[in-house]
Amino acid sequence: MSNCHDMKLGQVYVCEACSLELEVVKECEVCEKDAADCECVEHGTFSCCGEPLKLKA
Ligand SMILES: [Zn+2]
Ligand SMILES: [Zn+2]
Asked: Most buried of the four, 17, 22, 32, 54, by CB within 10 Å?
């Protein structure tokens, strides 16, 4: 996963190192209107245990 632009409602992201799972219960409202307006890009990825969370298959 990169950032909130790719995170859609109901998706579950997992940390392969510790098995933590995060579910998207609400999408980014800024991206919903216009992803180009979202400033989150600069803040990088969501990570756990030093690695980016991955979308659960
Ligand atoms: Zn966003
Ligand atoms: Zn972890």
From this structure: 22
